[in-house]
Amino acid sequence: xxxxxxxxxxxxxxxxxxxxxxxxxxxxxxxxxxxxxxxxxxxxxxxxxxxxxxxxxxxxxxxxxxxxxxxxxxxxxxxxxxxxxxxxxxxxxxxxxxxxxxxxxxxxxxxxxxxxxxxxxxxxxxxxxxxxxxxxxxxxxxxxxxxxxxxxxxxxxxxxxxxxxxxxxxxxxxxxxxxxxxxxxxxxxxxxxxxxxxxxxxxxxxxxxxxxxxxxxxxxxxxxxxxxxxxxxxxxxxxxxxxxxxxxxxxxxxxxxxxxxxxxxxxxxxxxxxxxxxxxxxxxxxxxxxxxxxxxxxxxxxxxxxxxxxxxxxxxxxxxxxxxxxxxxxxxxxxxxxxxxxxxxxxxxxxxxxxxxxxxxxxxxxxxxxxxxxxxxxxxxxxxxxxxxxxxxxxxxxxxxxxxxxxxxxxxxxxxxxxxxxxxxxxxxxxxxxxxxxxxxxxxxxxxxxxxxxxxxxxxxxxxxxxxxxxxxxxxxxxxxxxxxxxxxxxxxxxx
Length: 496
Fold this sequence. Notes:
Blueprint: H1 2-13, E1 18-22, H2 26-39, E2 44-48, E3 52-55, H3 70-80, E4 83-88, H4 97-109, E5 115-121, E6 134-138, H5 144-159, E7 165-167, H6 170-180, H7 185-199, E8 201-203, H8 206-221, E9 224-227, H9 240-254, H10 256-262, E10 269-274, H11 280-291, E11 295-298, H12 310-325, E12 328-332, H13 335-338, H14 350-364, E13 369-375, E14 393-397, H15 402-415, H16 425-431, H17 437-453, H18 460-468, H19 473-476, H20 478-488, E15 493-494
Parallel strand pairs: 1-5, 1-6, 2-4, 4-5, 7-8, 10-13, 10-14, 11-12, 12-13, 14-15
Antiparallel strand pairs: 2-3, 9-11
């Protein structure tokens, strides 16, 4: 925030007279701009469509009559002479030629006077007459320290009114604050207050409940899906290499402040290539659960729009939401399907443009967003994705080894109320050579259906019979899997 304040102050002092501040928190912008005006010894004016313009931003500051109409409010700038004029939500009215003309007059007015017109909002569209004069600045959301300070303040204020038990370890408290990041300070205050008021306490299990508030924010936009992260890495069989890599980065996620002092940034993400049905999507869910972060899924089908330019705007909005919700895990399943047309013009070049925007975002993104992308068909995946900097690492997920297959049988049997110790897991693992994790699961489900319909208990023989009746993908697509393995041999890191 200090950097943003310094930049705004420098622009105003340098006679940049039209500033666009991209923010979802006009109240924070109002407070910041009022402080800057005070530091510059300038008058401060704030305007809203419902109340009009007033001098200052304090509750008792007077409103100026007849300034609710946008055109009249902007025309007032010339009458006041100098100052910082903050217009909340003026963007939609800039299409009115009269309003735009008054803004141009104000900009020219400040050519030889001290002052600026500041417009706050999201996706502000400027008419051609204003574009040469405008500078856009993004107001970052409240950071970790801002949320931590507010958490302590809310606890103190509520403790003065009622008994409050704070049953949080230092790690729990850090995770709680990390989960609040992405909400506005107003939203976060309501969430914390509700958690305390419900039972008079803050506990470790309240950390995950913060996610419900974020879910509502995400789903309002309709571009990202909020997924419950219920699986843990313990429910993912095998993949020891990937698990080890992730475990080394968990400490950074748990304590990003200490990591930053140590010179480490938030991990960028992984690209999981491999055989279909071998747990790549499960890993995305498990990473979010293991790290205690919200899991957002990007479905590229939600991005594409029939109107020219809207698909790119949709993508930028989705990524802005992801960055606002950070720290998060962003899951993009079957990445090759998202950009299947990126090499051609079958869709008028839309996929190519979105692909370019996506690559730029992967390289330059702001906010702690860990991207977990999966792919089954490397032939359709543009080579630009493999370059270092887009992802921290590219892993290859192969068919599970015997030990992993036995563990997969154990997991799915236990999940369906069967006692794994009553089954010959080693024998099942040998019989299911070449099976993916998904095929093993379906073998268990199929055998259970057979046992249920015949009113018998499930046993090893029934599972072996189901395995024998299954034709695994490794047999029907032997050549394709072989090509995938050869390609990955010297280009990826084995996940197992």
